[in-house]
Amino acid sequence: MSIFDFLKPKKNTAAVAKDRLRIIIAQERSASGGPDYLPLLRRELLEVIRKYVNVDADAVKVDVVKDGEHDVLDISVALPEERAAVG
C-alpha cells in the first residue's frame, strides 16, 4: 500500500463488478451473433416439449442461421428412442 493511496478515489466494488459483467455480456452477444431472445426461447421450448416427452436439457438446440439474405430460426430437438408420455 502506497502512502498516496488515500488520494485515489475509491470505486465501489459493486460498480466494478457491474462494469465487468456488462463487458462480459457484450462480448458474449457479439461472439454468438444471435438475438438476445434465443436462450429464453430455448428454455420455453424445452418446457413445452417436456409436457409431452422426457428429454434432457441439452436435447433442444436453437440457433439463427443465414440463408442468403434471410435469417432462419433453426430448432433441433433430439427425441429419446422411447417416447414415454409425461403425465
TrEMBL record:
Record-linked InterPro entries: MinE, MinE_sf
UniProtKB keywords: Cell cycle, Cell division
Pfam families named among the record's database cross-references: MinE
Alphabetical GO biological process terms: cell division; regulation of division septum assembly
Keyword Cell division recorded: yes
Gene3D superfamilies cross-referenced by the UniProt entry: Cell division topological specificity factor MinE
Molecular-function annotations in GO: identical protein binding
Family: Belongs to the MinE family.
NCBIfam families from the UniProt entry: minE, PRK00296.1
Role according to the record: Prevents the cell division inhibition by proteins MinC and MinD at internal division sites while permitting inhibition at polar sites. This ensures cell division at the proper site by restricting the formation of a division septum at the midpoint of the long axis of the cell.
Name the record gives this protein: Cell division topological specificity factor
